[in-house]
Structures are given as structure tokens and as C-alpha cells.
């Protein structure tokens, strides 16, 4: 028996993931998601611009977090360490969404248009990080290089984190990827 | 007096750049480009899928070059150095297209949809480089980290190269950006 859930947005996200998994992203409509979540299509479109947005719901929050945490990192941190603090904080937003993140990654990997959207999201995160480093007084090309490097670390750490059912903490995945980056000769 | 040019493709590229610069990308049609280049619209579409493709003409050649040169780099090179050899060779394809590259960058920077396409092209270059490193026997996460780092260096070196009328050689821009990357703490 389904228990009553006031969280319509969460219900729509869960319904969408199930449908994308079962039928495929292309074969699922916004109407299907609304129906499965027990809401009207109108409610769906009050929350999301389209079905794709269900998967990119947290992107803006992550961008803002990366920016704000990078700007506020201790002054003595190097540009790369400040940016890594930012991306670690963004990753921590996902801490209690591991199962969601695993399923979402699988769905994105199966759809070229979602992969493109994911790349653009990472590019936006790089831009936020570069901007934050500029606000810390870091000049070019160091700001861009450190921001790209930190987002690359995020990308690699995230891939590791969603590859296992019981992964290390996200911050540990970041530390591991950052160490490998620093070891490049 | 215009001299006779057998190179229809080159004429279309030059005509497109002039029109994109003068009128803006959105205000230029494939028909305008064909007319200015003295070819039929049909000829235009035999060479390019759409007007956007005029600006991304060399992308596949660059991806293949990065891949092949990275694979063939001396065995003793580190993964990062092998990838840097690949992106340097890709950059050298642009050596005699500096003025074109400057104008093209300005046009891309003014158009969000072209910027997205450019990001996807860089992502494809990262993918080619990662694949080439795998073929050299480099494992994850080092292959991804080295490939992303090399493409970041390409991106930063390219930005520097197109920022000046008389820039250093592309390979020197790469060396400079790679040194700054290695100096990140």
C-alpha cells in the first residue's frame, strides 16, 4: 500500500527514473511520469520545463555551491585546493542520493542528448569555479587551469563513486582522483 | 579584380566568416554564403550539412590527429606528455589559419549555440585522447586525468594564441600552458 507522500517533486523524480530505466528515456513522456507520480501533467510542468530537466534538477544548486565554497575557502589555499574544496562541497550535496545518482548515470550514459547536457553542466561548473578563483584574485591562465583541473577531478571522482554499490565517501573519491592528478608528470 | 579560385570550399568558408562577422551568425543563411562565394546553394549543401558546420570543418581531422599522434608518441613519454604531443600536433594543423582562427573565435564567443558545439568538440577531443592513452596501456583514472589535462592545456593555449595578432607559435603556447598546469599545487 502506497503511503501518502506530500513530496510531489520527489515522487516525480522517482517515477521518471523508473520509467526511463524500464522503457528508455525516448519512450517516456512527461504525461507518463505525471501519471505514475499521481499528479497532473500541469503539476509536472510547474516543476520541470521538460522531462530532461528531471535529471538536471540539482545542477544550479551545485554550481552555486562550487562557486560560494571556492570563494570562501581559507586564503592560504592554493587555487587548485580552493577549487577542490568547492567541488567536494558540491559532491557532498549528493551524499544521500547515491542510488539515484547510480541510476541517473546509467540513463545519461545511454542517451547522447543527455550526455551533451551533462557536458554542458560540467562546463557551467568550470565557469563558476573560474569566476570564483578570479574573485579570489587568481589571474589567468592559472584560474582556468585550476578550475578545469578541479572539475576533471570531480568528473573522475563521480564516475568512481557511481560505479560501486558501496563506494567510499565522495570526499575520499575526490582525494584519490586529486592525488592521481598531482602525480601526473 | 577577383582572381579565379578553384577552391569552392575555401571560398565558402571565407564568405561565411565575412557574413557572420558583418551581419551576425543568426542573420546569415546558407543561401547568403553560397551567393557570396559564387556557388549554388546545392553546392553549399554538398560540402556542409548546415551553416554551423562551416565553422567546425576541421574538427574530425583534429580528433584523428590527436589520437594518432598520442598513440605513436615515444614509449618513454608519460601519459600527460604523450597526450600533450597529440594536442600540439592538432594545434599545428591551425598554424597557417591564424587569422581565420581569430575571427572564428570571435564569432563562436558571440553565439551560445556555437559555444555549446565548441564544448562538444573539445569533449570529443578528450575522448579521442583517452582512447589513445588506453591503447598505450594507460589505465584509469590516469588516462582520463591526463587526457582532460591535455585538452585543458589545448583550450588555454588556443585562447592565448587567438588573443594576439602576432602570437608565439602554437607549440610555445602549449608549452607555456603545460608549465602553468604543472606548477599548480
Automatic annotation (TrEMBL), chains A, B:
Pfam families, A to Z: TetR_N
DNA-binding residues (ranges): 29-48
Molecular function via GO: DNA-binding transcription factor activity; transcription cis-regulatory region binding
Domain of life: Bacteria
Domain HTH tetR-type: 6-66
Record's keyword terms, sorted: DNA-binding, Transcription, Transcription regulation
Stored InterPro entries: DNA-bd_HTH_TetR-type_CS (IPR023772), Homeodomain-like_sf (IPR009057), HTH-type_TetR-like_transc_reg (IPR050109), HTH_TetR (IPR001647)
Residue ranges that the Swiss-Prot or TrEMBL entry lists as coiled coil: none
Record-given protein name: TetR family transcriptional regulator
Organism: Labedaea rhizosphaerae
Amino acid at each position: 500500500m502506497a503511503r501518502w507522500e506530500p513530496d510531489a517533486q520527489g515522487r516525480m523524480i522517482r517515477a521518471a527514473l523508473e520509467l526511463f530505466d524500464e522503457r528508455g528515456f525516448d519512450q517516456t513522456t512527461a504525461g507518463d511520469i505525471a501519471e505514475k507520480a499521481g499528479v497532473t501533467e500541469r503539476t509536472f510542468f510547474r516543476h520541470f520545463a521538460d522531462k530532461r530537466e528531471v535529471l538536471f534538477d540539482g545542477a544550479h544548486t551545485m554550481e552555486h555551491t562550487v562557486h560560494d565554497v571556492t570563494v570562501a575557502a581559507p586564503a592560504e589555499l592554493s587555487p587548485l585546493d580552493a577549487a577542490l574544496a568547492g567541488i567536494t562541497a558540491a559532491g557532498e550535496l549528493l551524499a544521500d542520493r547515491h542510488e539515484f545518482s547510480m541510476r541517473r548515470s546509467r540513463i545519461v550514459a545511454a542517451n547522447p542528448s543527455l550526455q551533451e547536457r551533462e557536458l554542458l553542466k560540467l562546463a557551467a561548473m568550470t565557469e563558476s569555479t573560474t569566476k570564483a578563483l578570479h574573485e579570489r584574485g587568481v589571474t589567468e591562465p592559472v584560474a582556468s587551469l585550476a578550475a578545469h583541473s578541479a572539475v576533471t577531478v570531480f568528473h573522475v571522482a563521480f564516475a568512481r563513486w557511481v560505479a560501486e554499490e558501496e563506494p567510499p565517501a565522495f570526499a575520499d573519491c575526490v582525494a584519490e582522483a586529486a592525488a592521481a592528478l598531482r602525480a601526473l608528470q
